[in-house]
Design a protein that fits this description.
FAD/NAD(P)-binding domain; 6-stranded mixed beta sheet; 362 residues; 27% strand; binds flavin-adenine dinucleotide; alpha/beta
């Protein structure tokens, strides 16, 4: 077997580590000069979306012998709508660094690998597939998938983000659901430390959103964050991203080509997160290659949660600010909080039921 992995991101690296653990070495190609050679941000894994694997870090360690050191445990998530604020508390997940940061997850994964990564190698699938028996497509870009099979795009998203300075509590995150600046989308603050955080504004590129003034949305977002956190927000660095595709592939595998991470469609439509799913698909592809699993079978639960997540998003998108206020208020209720934090409950299904009556009124 001659295995190539295109892309040394989360999915490519977990695939390579798992292959190594079973005695196989892949040729790993990375177009950049080092892993995570891009802007620094904080990302999060919310436990409530990973049923039945509520503690992702423990799960990767104990089940897959892949060890991640998050930057913080998430203990409190604030939910802000236009006129309401509520929060949920508990063991809610983790934050971690990405990009050019010494503790970035891609760096942590690369450190667990013996195999050398071939840097500055932007390879094409067409060329690689002739030389290798197995190819793992892990470029983090659904457009690469689209060259090989249909990729059903649910929506494209615009990200505007910044590293901000202020006073933060590392274990607390703030989320904003407010159509005034995050139309059919959301904004969130994930602390890197007590003094620095990532602020992200993300919304779908629907025609009605495209007609809006992007800078105005961003300025409104900044001022709302300042008001809700009751402090001045100092911007250290900004970035923006467009055309981030959220969608699903037709088949996770064609012949001996495996689609993993964002190339698989790992992004969950509800909040646009995909770290957990990306790492999982990398591991699962490796299991298939070494003969201890069937990739198509292993990813079936991910397909199901993608569809649950998409239908919940479609319901949420119908809500105006008044309805978002009602929903936020409803979350500020111990019964609902315990449903959300219950380890045995599939949150996507529960939330779908909660949101449904609100969206029916829309
Ligand atoms: C702004 C932003 C915030 C996010 N926040 C969160 C969050 O909070 N929580 C969460 O769970 N998810 C989040 N996500 C999504 C998450 O980052 C992705 O789902 C995940 O990184 C995808 O992993 P991957 O391995 O598919 O791709 P990546 O980790 O992006 O890795 C792809 C790698 O392939 C390399 N590459 C590309 N093309 C080639 C080529 N032709 N040849 C060789 N190498 C190539 C790239 O340089 C890169 O290193 C966020 C995404 C963005 C954009």
């Amino acid at each position: 077997m001659k295995i190539a992995i295109i892309g040394a991101g989360l999915a490519g690296l977990t695939c390579a580590i798992t292959l190594e653990k079973h005695g196989y070495q892949a040729d790993i190609f990375e177009k950049r000069g080092m892993v995570g050679d891009r802007f620094v941000i904080s990302e999060a894994m919310f436990s409530m979306f990973h049923t039945p694997y509520k503690d992702a870090v423990k799960y990767f360690s104990e089940i897959h012998d892949i060890h991640l050191k998050p930057s913080s445990n998430l203990q409190k998530i604030y939910i802000h709508s236009e006129n309401e604020t509520s929060f949920i508390e508990g063991h809610l997940g983790f934050t971690n660094m990405r990009g050019k940061h010494p503790e970035a997850y891609e760096k942590q994964l690369a450190d667990q690998l013996q195999t050398k990564i071939h840097y500055n190698q932007e390879v094409s699938y067409e060329k690689i597939s002739k030389e290798y028996t197995h190819v793992v497509l892990a470029t983090g870009d659904a457009m690469d998938t689209k060259k090989l099979q249909p990729f059903d795009v649910a929506f494209k998203a615009t990200f505007k983000g910044a590293i901000i300075e202020g006073n933060f509590i590392e274990s607390e995150t703030h989320t904003f659901f407010n159509n005034n600046f995050a139309p059919k989308g959301m904004s969130y603050i994930l602390p890197h430390s007590d003094t620095e955080a990532s602020l992200v504004l993300v919304y779908p590129q629907y025609p009605e959103n495209e007609a809006l003034d992007k800078e105005e949305l961003w300025q409104k977002c900044l001022s709302e964050c300042a008001i809700r956190l009751d402090q001045e927000i100092m911007i250290v660095k900004e970035y923006s991203l467009k055309d981030y595709r959220v969608g699903k592939i037709q088949t996770p595998r064609i012949g001996n080509t495996f689609f993993v991470g964002n190339c698989f469609g790992a992004i969950t439509p509800l909040i646009g997160f995909g770290e957990f799913e990306s790492m999982l698909t990398g591991i699962y592809a490796a299991h298939d290659i070494v003969g201890i699993g069937d990739y198509e079978e292993l990813v079936k639960p991910l397909n199901q949660s993608y569809h649950d997540s998409l239908s919940l998003r479609r319901s949420l998108e119908k809500l105006d600010n008044q309805q978002l206020d009602l929903l936020t208020k409803a979350i500020d209720n111990k019964t609902i909080e315990s449903l959300i934090t219950n380890k045995n409950i599939n949150l996507l299904k529960i939330l779908g039921r909660l949101v449904h009556p609100f969206s029916r009124k829309a």
